What we know:
single chain, mainly alpha, 2 strands, 50% helix
Amino acid sequence: xxxxxxxxxxxxxxxxxxxxxxxxxxxxxxxxxxxxxxxxxxxxxxxxxxxxxxxxxxxxxxxxxxxxxxxxxxxxxxxxxxxxxxxxxxxxxxxxxxxxxxxxxxxxxxxxxxxxxxxxxxxxxxxxxxxxxxxxxxxxxxxx
Length: 144
């Protein structure tokens, strides 16, 4: 008991001691192998990126030799509205212009978009509809 109080262990009890002791050199060897592998992986990744970067530079050089010269053109329609330099008008102005075009089209005579038809003013179309009535559509009903 006196030995246990002093912090020493009795030698006649082997179960109280660690049976397997790891050698320090194996720990150092494992750490060195891990470090070497990490350095090797980093070097390989660096080389892959360098090769890809040089290939990209060659592809960029080919793009610079294209026949497109001069000022950059505007992007294709539809463009952003209300952004200076991209659209000449504001959304409100575009909507007003659209409504004016539609009102002019609904109130005038002219050829329709579909071939063989004409466009008449909407007021005249309503008057004709009142005079002639709505044509009845005959539909066969099959009972379903």
